Amino acid sequence: MEPKEQNPCPHTGVLNIIDPEYTANPQPAYARLLAEHRVAKSIAMHSPILSRYEDVMYALRHPEIFSSEMDMKVLLGTRRPMIPQQIDPPRQTRYRKILDLRFSRPRMQALEPDLRRHAQEVIDGFVERGECEFDSEFAVPLPCRAFLTLMGLPQEELDLFIELKNGIIRPPVDPMDMIAATEFRMKTGERIYAYFEKMIEDRRAKPCDDMMTYLTTVELDGQPLSDEEILDISYLFLLGGLDTVTATLGCSMAYLAANPEQRRKLVAKPELIPNAVEELLRWETPVSLLPRVLKQNVTIGDVELREGALVNLLIGAANLDPAEFPDAMHVDFERESIRHVAFGAGAHRCLGSHLARMELRAALEEWHKRIPDYAIKAGAVPKVSPGIREQLYLPLVWSA
Ligand code: HEM
């Protein structure tokens, strides 16, 4: 049998980001990148990859050099750039001022009782069965319900919203057929715009206390937001707020299922859960790679990167950099001050981090109260998606 090629390739520094073994378990490849290739290359177009914590932080803190303004319409089905993620400061900073207010920690904590109730109801649905498919039965519906509550939408829209975000992130067509995928995304994108256009109209006619009413009434420099601006913000909320939490829940639970001694620590000391959430975000970093476009030539180490180049910031690897994290390859739920970059950093740092943390903490607490002892079903092979590392198939079993 041929020996399996190393990823990244030790000679060329090319990282195969769609290799299933890598997406399921990227940490060894991160460690090799950090040790051997300050500037590696991605298999896609051989675009450069930065992986050191120091380099990634430099890029995230210099949006005037590492720009977020790039054309992603084909991949996201959008009409225009999403706000604020696909625009640079200073324009981006103006939007963050009005959005940060609505995503503050106290506001997100106010959603917690409702989310816990939902988590308990979902668990009620399968706890007696002694098994579930974690992704479709828990990790997908829970953040979607939180999103509906946040936006002020009825819970009956759950299936529609799951369908819409899947239509953009994983269109149900042959994965190699880029034309069919683009067509599907553009059609889904138009459905998303149409849905939010109607919602804007409804809230203007009949305001209430929800996110969409806020967006239709808030002023930016003395002017209300235009319909286009509200649509470009809402579209991003839908894409940014659902898959990310789903993927983090799945990766965290897959880790805990495969590492019973670590899981037992959380069951014995549930007060460790908030720190475990941070440590698992560091270790798993489900949103592992952030793209940027260079506005000028930059030299990293002895490699010159050219203006206009697409650069990949591998935050998953930065989170395992031993120069920043002592004993970085060890998962330690009692680690002190975990300054991970799983939510990004600088101007574009995740707007939804307080919401995400609340969802993850509440979900892990509710789950372990009811189902403390579980494992991955014998013989099952969990499936992890490339890109945002969602556990697409994670069958768990426990004694009912
Ligand atoms: C565990 C869950 C989450 C993870 C790991 C995550 C990760 C990230 C990362 C890495 C960025 C930076 C992107 C960049 O620099 O290009 C980001 C930005 C963003 N996230 Fe999250 N996110 C999560 C949950 C959420 C939630 C629940 C929302 C709610 C709507 C959200 C909304 C956003 C928005 C709007 C931005 C863009 C911020 C800007 O560009 O100013 N995220 N997120």
In words, what does this structure look like?
This protein has about 400 residues and is α+β, with helices and mostly antiparallel strands. It has one domain: Cytochrome P450 (Cytochrome p450, Orthogonal Bundle), CATH 1.10.630.10. About 50% of the residues lie in helices and about 10% in strands. The chain is built from 17 helices and 15 strands. A six-stranded mixed beta sheet has the order 1-2-3-11-8-4. A hairpin with a 6-residue loop joins β13 and β14 (about 390-395). α9 (about 140-150) packs antiparallel against α13 (about 225-260), α11 packs across α12 and α13 runs parallel beside α17. The longest helix has about 30 residues, at about 225-260. The mean pLDDT is about 95. The structure holds protoporphyrin IX containing FE. Protoporphyrin IX containing FE binds next to α5, α13 and α17. Protoporphyrin IX containing FE binds near residues 236, 344 and 351.
